[in-house]
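Bit of a strange request maybe. I'm writing a small parser for structure token strings and I need a real example to test against, not something I typed by hand. Could someone generate the tokens for this chain?
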Amino acid sequence: VSSVTNKSNKTTPVPLTMKHALSMVSFRVYKAADYEGTGKLTKIVLKNVDAGTTLSKGTNPTMNIKTGVITEGTSIAATYTRTIKDGYTLESTADGAGARKFSIMVLPISTSIGNDKIQATFTIDGAEYTVKLTAPTANSGAWPAGKNHLYTVKLSGTELSLGTITVTQWEEVVGNANLEIK
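Reply from user aminoacidic:
Good idea to test on real output. This should exercise your parser:
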């Protein structure tokens, strides 16, 4: 970093610019008024449908530290699991607005995920509910690095269904702006 010197123990701020190398998939899960159970969400599993490799962990993935680009290697089917410690009781809302989000970080996918190639399984009240994901309309259906792909999921008395899909940049939050390296 060109602006840092260590002459006479000077304290000079070090500007660091970082970006997300991974992609994030989030689910805003809520229950409809006609769901009769408690609605306790304890686990979300994200994986490929059948033996596909759309969602992949790759063989020995590497990241270029200068560009942040991840090289995956040969595609290998992946399963990502998010366990919710002590469970979370889903809220009843009309359209999921304000419902809590649960996120999973995944390796980026540079081509369209397609429809029905990746599934999410939600464990709610001890039962498993599976839905197949659709490709987002943004980013040509891909899950690129630095993007959060938000799926709204409704649990009703008869089914689990996907609603809207939103893709957003991760929100930048400034931490302690006065970090020092000595």
